[in-house]
Amino acid sequence: MNTERCLQILREIKDVAFATVDDKGMPQIRIIDIMLVEGEKVYFCMARGKDFYAQLMRDGNVAVTGMNREYQMIRLSGSARRSVLRIL
What is the distance between the alpha carbons of residues 10 and 66, in angstroms, rounded to a whole number? Predict the structure, then answer.
């Protein structure tokens, strides 16, 4: 399965587990909503005041996993960066 198909499945799942690392090196996992998939990019929202935002801005390394209704598990890792996407 190629990356684009994996990302599309994540978008269909919507609510996925998203892991980062805190300032003590400990893993932190939360459920986020995949807002949009474009090519090989995933867009999601978060509040600037949250630990999640601080972790992404400090390190950027992430892991994402989800499972759809057909029991296909998708697991990806990579780096996140801040982006502003405007949908008109």
Answer: 7
d(CA 22, CA 84) in angstroms, rounded, equals 24
SS3 of 38-73: ECCEEECCCCCCCHHHHHHHHCCEEEEEEECCCCCE
Phi, psi of 42 (to 5 degrees): -115, 135
Please write the tens of the pLDDT for every residue from 49-87: 899 889 988 888 899 999 999 999 999 888 888 876 555
> What is the amino acid identity at position 77?
S
Give alpha helix (H) positions in 1-88.
3-13, 51-58
| Six-digit token string for 62 | 């992430």
Global confidence as pTM = 0.76
The candidate with the shortest Cα–Cα distance to 62, out of 45, 81, 47, is 81
